[in-house]
Amino acid sequence: MTERSSSNSAFKKSGVRKRADKIKPYRCKNLIAVLEDPTDIKNLGTVIRNVNALGVEKTYVVDPRRALPDDWQEMRERKSLSKISVSAIKWSFVKRFDSTEACLKHLERYNFVSIVTSPHVKGRKNIILHEGDYTSYTKLAVWFGNEARGISDLAVERSEFCVSIPMFGMIESLNLGTTSGIVLYEVTKQRREYQSKYKRAGKRRRKVTGRKSD
Ligand SMILES: C[S@@+](CC[C@H](N)C(=O)[O-])C[C@H]1O[C@@H](n2cnc3c(N)ncnc32)[C@H](O)[C@@H]1O
What we know:
Elements: H1 3-23, E1 28-36, H2 41-54, E2 56-62, H3 72-77, H4 79-84, H5 88-91, E3 93-97, H6 100-109, E4 113-117, E5 126-128, E6 140-144, H7 153-157, E7 162-164, H8 176-198
Parallel strand pairs: 1-2, 1-6, 2-3, 4-6, 4-7, 5-7
Helix pairs in contact: 2-8
Bound molecules: S-adenosylmethionine.
S-adenosylmethionine (SAM) binds next to helix 8.
């Protein structure tokens, strides 16, 4: 490496460090996006890109077909994922699970509350995206279902509520990657506002039931 190229890479590194320091306070801690058995790698890449861009802490993938490696480092080096996620995979932690049950067990062990998304009415409680309060739970996992089958009954059963984006067209559902952008935008916007408002005071509001008005 020449002197010039080594100083260029040091410059690049300091640029990356500066960016990482700048975005750190805006990242949403304890927020996980969960993809349940996605089949299209393009959707997976899009979700990872959205997760990174919106400051979501982690992505979990229920991957029963074992399409992904267990090791994150290996995942980061996968050219297909890196290309589709425009390198977001390098900056976002992604963990795979063999089954929905294994993923739920892990989340519940660490006290994460799950909410699911669906274009349909599912489970006990249904909320329209913009009417939901996504700051009630300190640790939150937001689930997105498979492209064809949607979210599983098991994930619905173990979730607090189901969120829908209102639709006004002739088609049944939105694309998985698109949904993740819309839903995570609202969730991270609320959690960022909450974090900045309550962080200094060191207190959390009383737990509410999901809807903003509750
Ligand atoms: C292509 S859709 C699945 C369609 C599937 N036929 C179904 O019944 O849900 C893939 C995923 O995107 C999310 N999704 C799509 N449209 C949505 C909407 N309008 N509101 C909330 N989530 C939606 C859900 O997580 C869904 O499981």
